[in-house]
Amino acid sequence: MTVDVKMAWRNIWRNPRRSILTMTAIAFATLLLVFMLSFQFGSYDTMINSAVKIHTGHLQVQAGGYQDKKRMRLAVPDPGAIGTILEATPDIEAYTYRANAFSLVSSKERTYGIVVIGIDPAREASVSALKKVIRHGSYLSSTDTNQALIGELLAKNLRVGLGDQLVVLGQGRDGSVAATVVEVKGIFNSGQDEFDRSSIHIPLSHFQEVYAMRGGVHEVVALGKSLGAIPAIKKTVAGVIEIKDAKQPLVVLDWMDLMPGLVEGIQLDLISGLILYFILIVVVAFSILNTFLMSVFERTKEFGVLMVIGTAPGRLTKVLLLESLTMTAVGIVVGIIAGILITWYFQVHGIVISGTSEVVRQFGIPERMFPRLSFLSITIGPTLVLFITFLTALYPALKVRRLQPVEALASV
Amino acid sequence: MTKKLLIAFCLALFIIAGLCGSGKAEDAQALVQASFDYYRGKASTATVDMTIHRPDWERVVTIRAWTKGQEESLFWITAPPKDEGNSTLKKGREMWIYNPKVNRVIKLPPSMMSQSWMGSDFSNNDLAKSDSLIKDYSHSLTGTETHEGKKVYLIQSIPKLEAPVVWGMQKLKIREDHIFLSQAFFDEDLKLVKIMTAHDIQMLGGKLFPRAWRMQKAEAWDEYTELTYNELDFKEDLPENLFTLTNLKNPRR
């Protein structure tokens, strides 16, 4: 055994330049994979967290069917009770109540059909970024009644500014006509055009009065301490709520249920990324195959000699595999270490992506991205490289077994 | 041999049916127009109870309505008290709504036309484009049946090319005395979306008229909106100045 290892090691350094080039190729592929995967995972976290922060939250409790139909009457009748449950649930950072109604909103000049959202000003500020994205005027206070926050694009469309009045006309929970006049108190720009174009926010208490909500809300929105804790929270809350209220079902939805578009976007990006990495690995594999094959061909005579003096073909295969595995291992270890170092640097300092496009802005991705090292992002790439290089090395290693000693001796 | 005869017979039947069909196209058109004129009259005033029914919930709104020809209507809610004074004016294909609480008239933007009217199963378009059936569709007779001893014409209405319509097809049932029995709305894929049916035909405003009209969505049969006429008067004419924005705010009783 030790003789085999020694032979393999010596064989590697017989042609140091070639071996180092091969190992560098492997190391570089590994480095790239570690960095890119960490970067992708990191950007998904950023995307999800910023999308979640804009509006949806990590998790919502709603009346069954509300997510699909958005009907006024599908309300959570006793939001306070859900609040108590959420208080008792570990890993919940903050929660708030919201009610929504599709309504006509009309300025002096124009009318649009948009969503009026009733929010609890104090709680909302701890869950969503709404307070932070106010660009003009100020955020709602707990004593406000018929004051409203309006998206910048909608304000432009309606041609209103701070202090202007808006007539809101919709339908209450009981089917009656809901009407109110609100004054623009703040104008926000979240960066998500759809959100800035299609909603106004008014205090929840005023909303409940105007839309005859009888104390009900449509969404109880919660923010978890981390993305990873969400499945557990969802399970806990769902367990409590389903037992508590069997007659009028309430459901717990996580960010994946609430933003299926975002999930699809991430999956698409991940898959296209993986295809690219696969192609990269195949290219690297071919160059490695070339090296391995050359090292076998140029040693045909030597193998012939070894076989003639009684070396079993299996042992030759073993030595060749040891040789290639050692090179791969060195390459991968160097690649992982370099990859971690580079990724870690950017994880601390961030990568500035200037000129973010419209598509990226839709999901509210910030300009500075942070890759995130994780066990998965460090291991997926190297495992793939190891697997494919091993397959590549198998071919020359097995080819040796079919050598005829006499013919091999005759070759140059 | 019998097979051939059968085919020949079928062919003959097909041709005759085709001939009848094309010959009756004009008739179908006239029939729809006559029926439309019959139920709209030249002008009318009415009091209608609108019942919005949902499986777990029901709501009745009383509406005072004025109509003139095909173009103009004014609706004014008189009950429940909470909603009293809300009104809708339709002139041509434009609609305005008024709410007394905020004392504002709002013209409905085009994007809102497919939304429901006052929370019912009628859309704003159903009101605003009520004359669309005559203007934008070509009608053909597809069959007949009987209803209370009278002949009923089954009519299929297909939108004319490039007509600005919401529906892919409509199917009408019109009785020989021009009473509208039903109107079914189909989408572009010719899937049934909703259907309006007339019930309880009796003497109203001096002529036979269905007292109740029910609109229901195809996907939810336990959800419907029913209009029941409490009062109906057909008039020769109504003053033009009735259908104005001023009257929308403060209609005469």
Structural description of this entry:
The complex is a heterodimer of chains A (412) and B (253). Chain A has a six-stranded mixed beta barrel, surrounded by four helices. A two-stranded antiparallel ribbon of chain A has the order 11-12. In chain A, helix 1 packs across helix 13 and helix 13 (313-349) runs antiparallel to helix 15 (375-399). Chain A has 412 residues and is of the alpha+beta class. Chain A starts with a helix and ends with a helix. In chain A, a hairpin with a 5-residue loop joins strand 6 and strand 7. Chain A is built from 16 helices and twelve strands. Chain B has 253 residues and is an alpha+beta fold. Chain B is 21% helix and 47% strand. Chain B has four helices and 13 strands. Chain B has a 13-stranded antiparallel beta sheet. In chain B, strand 4 (87-91) and strand 5 (94-99) form a beta hairpin. The longest helix of chain B has 39 residues, at 2-40. The radius of gyration of chain B is 20 Å and the shape is globular. In chain B, 29% of the residues are buried. Chains A and B meet through strand 2, strand 3, strand 6 and strand 7 of A and strand 6 of B.
Largest sheet of chain A: 6 strands, mixed, barrel
Radius of gyration of chain A: 31 Å
Number of strands of chain A: 12
Intertermini distance of chain B: 75 Å
Taken in chain order, the helices and strands of chain A follow as: HHEHHEEHEEHEEHEHEHEHHHHEHEHH
Please give the alpha-carbon distance between the first and last residues of chain A: 29 Å
Radius of gyration of chain B: 20 Å
Oligomer: heterodimer
Cross-sheet strand order for the largest sheet of chain A? 2-3-8-5-7-6
Shape of chain B: globular
The number of helical segments of chain B is 4
Which chains make the largest contact? A-B, 18 and 23 residues
Write the H/E string of chain B, N to C: HEEEEEEHHEEEEEEEH
The residue-averaged pLDDT of chain A reads 85
Beta content of chain B:
over 45%
| Structural class category of chain A | alpha+beta
Strands of the biggest beta sheet of chain B: in what spatial order?
A: 6-5-4-3-2-1-13-12-11-10-9-8-7
Helix % of chain B is 10-25%
Strand content of chain A: 15-25%
